Automatic annotation (TrEMBL):
Keywords: Autophagy, Cytoplasm, Hydrolase, Isopeptide bond, Metal-binding, Phosphoprotein, Protease, Repeat, Thiol protease, Ubl conjugation, Ubl conjugation pathway, Zinc, Zinc-finger. Zn(2+) binds at residues 206, 209, 226, 239. Residues 647-688, 722-762 form the UBA domain. This is Ubiquitin carboxyl-terminal hydrolase. One of its GO terms (cellular component) is cytoplasm.
Length: 861
C-alpha cells in the first residue's frame, strides 16, 4: 500500500449503523487499560512526535504504545494491530467578537490530553483544541469521538480509559520516593501587587514573630512569614498559612532555596508543593534575580556576588548576548527537573562520530528489529535520542518577522524546538536508586552508568564505548623489600586531583577567607569571591606521583608492610575523558566542591605517562596469596577470610569419600573451597560432577603455583561474566541467597574476600528481589570495574599516540553534586557552542577553566 493512500484523511465515510459491525473483527485485539499498564499517549516510541505534531499521535488499542506518522506503519506491519486511537492537538486563533475582543472558536470545549502548553503563544489570541478519533488500518477508516451511541460498549470503555489514563512519567519507578511536581494552576494567572516591596539577599525574619528559620515569601504581596508543618517539616508558628486564609494569596516560595534552576514553591490552595514555570518573573517583581543566586557555605543564598566572578554567571555566559543556533546537532534537551546532568552528558556523547554511526547510522535496522515494546529497549531509545539531537527536526529557526502576521491569520503551527527525554530517562534510570529520582546527580557517575549500559547492549560489530576504554598499568612496590608487582585494569576516565597546594594566588585566598569569616559572623554579604588558580601541570604531576597503599600485604615479606602505587597508561584511548576531582567531603560528611580555576589546555600531550612495564633491575614480588584465617563465627569468617595453611583437610576429604565420591575428587573439592569444611566441599562436588576430569588427581607442583592455581580455579571469569560456581556455593553455604552471592562476586571481580565484606556493607540488599539485584549489579562495576565481554584476547582497546585536542567540557554550578546545574560546551564547525538544556547558542566566552569533565579526541599522527 502506498503511503499517500494509507494516510488519506477521512476518505472512508461510514454510516452510523455500520460502525459496530466494522469493529467486530477487531474486538479481540482491543484492550481496556488496567492498573499498571503504561499508556504512552504523549510521545512516540521511536521519535519525539506527540499530539502537538503535525501528524498527531497514534496509540495502539492493544499495547497502548504511541507512534508518530513516520512510524505507525512499522508497528502495523510488525504486530498486525489494526485499531489505533489518533490524538491531535490543534492551536486555533480566536475569532474577534463584535466588541473587538476575541471569542473562542471551539469544536470541543474540553482539553482532554495531558500535554504541556506552548508558553510562547498569547492565550488572549489563541486556544487549544484536542481531537480524538479511532483509525482502523490498513484502510485508514476514521471514527470521530465521542460516538458513544454507535460504538460497542467495550470500545467506548477502552477509549475513555485510555484518554483518562495518567502519563507513565507522573511517578517514577517504585524505588524512587519522589513524585514529580506539577505546575500550579495559579502560576500563569498570579496577580502580584505593585506595592514597592523589595526583598534583601539576607537577614530575613518573619514579619509577625521575628523567626529567622523556615521563612516563606508570598509571591502576591511580598510578605515574609514563617511556615509550620507543610513541605519540609520545619517548625514555625504558621503565620504564612494564616496570611493565606486572610488574603487568599495562594503561592509562596521558601527563602533559602532559590537557585538559578528553581526554588521550592508551595500552593496553600492546592495544599502541596508545586512548580511555578514563571518563578523567575515572579521573583524579579520583588527585586530577586535568580541568575545571580548562589549557595553560600552557611546555607544562605545571596545575590550580592558580582557577575564577573559568579560561577553561575560565568559558566552560563550570562550578561552576554548569545546567538541561538539551529539545525542538525544544535537541538536542546528539556530539563525534567534536576536532569541537566543527563542533558549535558548526552549532548557530549552524541557529538562523537562513533556514537552517531552506531545509533543514528544504524537507526533503520535498530528500529526494524526492536522488540514489541521499544520503550524498554536500550538501543532503540539511544537511536531515538540521537536522531532527535542530530536530525534538526526539533531545532528549526523561528519564522521571519515579515511572515508572522500573514501566518497568524491562519491556524497557528507552534514551533517545536528541543526534545523532552522522559522516555529515555525513565528507561535508562530504571532500577537505579539515584538516577530514577528527581534529585540532582553526578554527571561523572551517570557517564559511567551509560557506558555500562552501552557495554551490555552491543549494536553492530563495534561497540562505540570502545573509544573511551584504556588500560591502566598499576605498579605496586613494597617499600621494605623494594620488590614490585605490575597489574593492569580497564578504565574509562582519567581522574585528575586538584593540587590546591600549587595555587598561584595563595595570599589572595588567605585574605578572602578572613573577610568571608568576618562577614559570616556579622551576617553581612560575603566579600567578592576569590577563586584558587591552579596550574594544570600541577594536577598532572599530582596524578603521576606515587600514592600510599592502605593495608598492603607484601608477598616478599609475607607480612603487612608499607607500599606505594603508581599509575600509568598501558594504552591511550581514542577519546580521553578527564575528570577534575573537585568534589570532596567536609567534616560534616556533606559533599562539597572545590571552587577552582584550572588552565586546561586546548592541546594535551600525555605521552610521558605511557607505561613501561618491568624495568631492568626490578625484582617482582612473589605471586603468593595472603594467608587465610577462618574463625568459627560465619560472619567473622566473611570479614577475616585469610588462609592460614594450604594443607588439605583430610578429615573433610574422608567424610566426602564415605559418601561414595572418588577420593581424588574429594581432595580437589576440599582444596578448591579453601578447607571450609565438608558441607561447602560437597556443594563444589555437585557443581563439578559432570566435568571430564572430575576424578583426576589434583596436580600441585609448588607453593607459588598452588596459590596461583587456586586463585585461577576460584576466580576465573567465564565468557558470560558469571562468577565461578564454587565461589557462589561458598557464600550460599554461609546462609546468603544465591542472587546476593552472584551480585557480590560480580561487584568485586570474583574476589571472595572482598565479596564477603561487600555483603556485610550492603545489608539492605539481602531482602531484595532478583530483578532489582540484576539491575543494581550494573552499577557495581562502574569505572575501573566495568568489564567488557573481552573473550580470550583481552579488552578491546584503540591504542595510539597520547596527543589530544579539546572538543568539549561539562561544567557544574553549585556547591555539591547534590545540587546545582550542569552546562555543556562543545566545539562544532570551528566554534564553541553552549548547550544549556533547551537553550543552544554560539558561545562567546567558553569558561574552559571552570569545567568538571573534559572531552579530548586524539590528534592523528
Amino acid at each position: 500500500m502506498q503511503r499517500a493512500a494509507l494516510f488519506r484523511g477521512g476518505d472512508a465515510q461510514m454510516a452510523a449503523g455500520d460502525l459496530g459491525e466494522l469493529l467486530v473483527p477487531y474486538m479481540p485485539t482491543i484492550r481496556v487499560p488496567k492498573s499498571g499498564d503504561r499508556v504512552y499517549k504523549t510521545e512516540c516510541a521511536f521519535s519525539y512526535d506527540s499530539p502537538d505534531s503535525e501528524g498527531g499521535l497514534y496509540v495502539c488499542m492493544n499495547t497502548f504504545l504511541g507512534f508518530g506518522r513516520e512510524h505507525i506503519e512499522r508497528h502495523y506491519r510488525k504486530t498486525g494491530q489494526c485499531v489505533y486511537l489518533h490524538l491531535k492537538r490543534h492551536v486555533i486563533e480566536k475569532v474577534p467578537g463584535a466588541s473587538g475582543g476575541a471569542l473562542p472558536k471551539r469544536r470541543n470545549a474540553k482539553l482532554f490530553l495531558d500535554l504541556e502548553t506552548n508558553s510562547d503563544l498569547n492565550s488572549e489570541d489563541f486556544e487549544y483544541e484536542d481531537e480524538a478519533k479511532l483509525v482502523i488500518f490498513p484502510d485508514h477508516y476514521e471514527i470521530s469521538l465521542p460516538n458513544i451511541e454507535e460504538l460497542p460498549a467495550l470500545v467506548t470503555i477502552a477509549c475513555d480509559a485510555l484518554l483518562s489514563a495518567k502519563s507513565p512519567y507522573r511517578k517514577q519507578e517504585s524505588d524512587s520516593w519522589e513524585e514529580e511536581l506539577q505546575a500550579s494552576k495559579h502560576a500563569k494567572t498570579l496577580v502580584q501587587l505593585d506595592n514597592g516591596v523589595r526583598i534583601p539577599p539576607s537577614g530575613w525574619k518573619c514579619s509577625k514573630c521575628d523567626l529567622r528559620e523556615n521563612l516563606w515569601l508570598n509571591l502576591t504581596d511580598g510578605s515574609v512569614l514563617c511556615g509550620k508543618w507543610f513541605f519540609d517539616g520545619s517548625g514555625g508558628n504558621g503565620h504564612a498559612m494564616e496570611h493565606y486564609k486572610e488574603t487568599g494569596y495562594p503561592l509562596a516560595v521558601k527563602l533559602g532555596t532559590i537557585t538559578p534552576d528553581g526554588a521550592d514553591v508551595y500552593s496553600f490552595d492546592e495544599e502541596e508543593p508545586v512548580l511555578d514555570p514563571h518563578i523567575a518573573k515572579h521573583l524579579a517583581h520583588f527585586g530577586i534575580d535568580m541568575l545571580q543566586m548562589q549557595v553560600t557555605e552557611n546555607g544562605l543564598r545571596d545575590n550580592d556576588i558580582k557577575p564577573r566572578v559568579s560561577e553561575w554567571e560565568v559558566i552560563q555566559e550570562a550578561g552576554v548576548k548569545l546567538k541561538p543556533m539551529y539545525g542538525p546537532g544544535y537541538t536542546g534537551i528539556k530539563n525534567l527537573g534536576n536532569s541537566c546532568y543527563l542533558n549535558a552528558v548526552m549532548q557530549a556523547i552524541f557529538s562523537i562520530p562513533e556514537f552517531q554511526r552506531a545509533y543514528v547510522g544504524n537507526l533503520p535496522r535498530i528500529f526494524d528489529y526492536s522488540p514489541l515494546d521499544p520503550t524498554q529497549d536500550f538501543n532503540t531509545q539511544m537511536a531515538k535520542l540521537g536522531h532527535g539531537l542530530l536530525s534538526g527536526q526539533y531545532s528549526k529557526p523561528p519564522m521571519k518577522s515579515e511572515l508572522i502576521e500573514q501566518v497568524m491569520k491562519e491556524e497557528h503551527k507552534p514551533q517545536r524546538n528541543g526534545i523532552s527525554p522522559r522516555m529515555f530517562k525513565a528507561f535508562i534510570s530504571k532500577g537505579h536508586p539515584e538516577f530514577s529520582s528527581n534529585r540532582q546527580q553526578d554527571a561523572q557517575e551517570f557517564f559511567l552508568h551509560l557506558i555500562n549500559l552501552v557495554e551490555r547492549n552491543p549494536v553492530g560489530s563495534e561497540n562505540p564505548s570502545d573509544v573511551f576504554r584504556f588500560l591502566v598499568e598499576e605498579r605496586t612496590q613494597c617499600c621494605q623489600s623494594r620488590k614490585v608487582r605490575y597489574t593492569e585494569r580497564v578504565d574509562y576516565i582519567m581522574q585528575l586531583p586538584v593540587a590546591m597546594e600549587a595555587a598561584t594566588n595563595k595570599d589572595e585566598l588567605i585574605a578572602y577567607e578572613l573577610k568571608r569569616r568576618e562577614a559570616e559572623a556579622a551576617r553581612r554579604p560575603p566579600p567578592e569571591l576569590v577563586r584558587a588558580k591552579i596550574p594544570f601541570s600541577a594536577c598532572l604531576q599530582a596524578f603521576s606521583e606515587p600514592s600510599n597503599v592502605e593495608d598492603f600485604w607484601s608477598s616478599a615479606l609475607q607480612a603487612k608492610s608499607a607500599g606505594v602505587k603508581t599509575s600509568r597508561f598501558a594504552s591511550f584511548p581514542e577519546y580521553l575523558v578527564v575528570q577534575i576531582k573537585k568534589f570532596t567531603f567536609g567534616l560534616d560528611w556533606i559533599p562539597k566542591k572545590l571552587d577552582v580555576s584550572i588552565d586546561m589546555p586546548d592541546f594535551l600531550d600525555i605521552s610521558h605517562l605511557r607505561a613501561r612495564g618491568l624495568q631492568p633491575g626490578e625484582e617482582e614480588l612473589p605471586d603468593i596469596a595472603p594467608p587465610i584465617v577462618i574463625p568459627d563465627d560465619p560472619k567473622d569468617r566473611m570479614t577475616n577470610h585469610f588462609m592460614e595453611s594450604l594443607d588439605i583437610d583430610e578429615s573433610s576429604v574422608m567424610q566426602l569419600a564415605e559418601m561414595g565420591f572418588p577420593l581424588e575428587a574429594c581432595r580437589k573439592a576440599v582444596y578448591y573451597t579453601g578447607n571450609l569444611g565438608a558441607e561447602v566441599a560437597f556443594n563444589w562436588i555437585i557443581a563439578h560432577m559432570e566435568e571430564p576430569d572430575f576424578a583426576e588427581p589434583l596436580v600441585v607442583s609448588a607453593f607459588g603455583e598452588v596459590a596461583s592455581s587456586g586463585a585461577a580455579a576460584l576466580g576465573a571469569v567465564g565468557l558470560d561474566n558469571q562468577p565461578p560456581e564454587e565461589m557462589v556455593a561458598i557464600i550460599i553455604s554461609m546462609g546468603f541467597q544465591r542472587n546476593l552471592a552472584i551480585q557480590a562476586l560480580k561487584a568485586t571481580n570474583n574476589n571472595l574476600e572482598r565479596a564477603l565484606e561487600w555483603i556485610f556493607s550492603h545489608p539492605d540488599l539481602e531482602e531484595e528481589s532478583e530483578p532489582a539485584l540484576d539491575t543494581m549489579d550494573m552499577e557495581n562495576n562502574a569505572n575501573a570495574n566495568i568489564l567488557a565481554d573481552t573473550g580470550s584476547e583481552g579488552p578491546r582497546i584503540k591504542d595510539g599516540p597520547g596527543r589530544y585536542e579539546l572538543f568539549g567540557f561539562i561544567s557544574h554550578m553549585g556547591t555539591s553534586t547534590m545540587s546545582g546545574h550542569y552546562v555543556c560546551h562543545l566545539k562544532k564547525e570551528g566554534r564553541w557552542v553552549i548547550y544549556n538544556d533547551l537553550r543552544v547558542c554560539a558561545s562567546e566566552r567558553p569558561p574552559k577553566d571552570l569545567g568538571y569533565i573534559y572531552f579530548y579526541h586524539r590528534i592523528p599522527s
